[in-house]
Structure formats: structure tokens, C-alpha cells
Amino acid sequence: xxxxxxxxxxxxxxxxxxxxxxxxxxxxxxxxxxxxxxxxxxxxxxxxxxxxxxxxxxxxxxxxxxxxxxxxxxxxxxxxxxxxxxxxxxxxxxxxxxxxxxxxxxxxxxxxxxxxxxxxxxxxxxxxxxxxxxxxx
Length: 137
Prior knowledge:
Layout: E1 2-6, H1 12-24, E2 28-30, H2 33-36, H3 38-41, H4 48-57, H5 60-68, E3 73-76, H6 90-101, E4 105-108, H7 118-123, E5 127-128
Parallel strand pairs: 1-2, 1-3, 3-4, 4-5
Helix pairs in contact: 5-6
Protein name: Maf-like protein
């Protein structure tokens, strides 16, 4: 299966581990540019305006949408962040919506967080894997 992974750049290590595990199982896997490219990854702690500038400069939001069209499934890697288990930030929420609109299989590695937009995430009906990548079918 062709799987594209979405998630916060702060989850880079876990995303890379998940990528390797899925590839070892025979899947073709894509990961965010911000994880593949050091010049982008280094900006994760920058000011909001600088992070926005990077997303604009590299057209990251539109670019990932275009890539997503070529994949069978979208996997959200959502470990704890900012003290919130299963954290899903703004950019990842946008990517979940892209997956939903494109009718892609949508998986979340961990349960959805309790946030102001949880109802929107639930409406997209992701399959919650509870950390078990073997549930991807």
C-alpha cells in the first residue's frame, strides 16, 4: 500500500521509526518535507512568522496536498505534545481534512486528543490504531 504520513515535525523521530516499520512490511511511504529537509526541520522552534515564511517559501501545504492525491492512505502520527496525548495541531488537522475530502483511508496512530476541534476530527472517521501498525489494511 502507498501510505503518506502526516504529523508535527516535533514527532520526527517517531515518524521516521514508523516509516521504517511500514517499509519493512512492504509499504511505500512518504513523509513530510520538514522531516526530510534539514533546512526546514531546523526552523521548527522559530517564531511563528518565520515558520509561516518557510511553509510559504517551499509551498509545503499545497505541495503535500498534491502528493497526498497519489497515495492510498494517510497515517497521522500523533504522539503526546504540549502535555496533550494524541496531539493534532493545525497543520495536521488541515492534512486530515485533505485526506477526508480526497476519500483516502485515514488512520491515526493514537487516540484523538480532547481539543476544541475534536468533533471535526471525529467527523472524518479516522481508524484509530492504538499504536498498532498491523491494523493498517
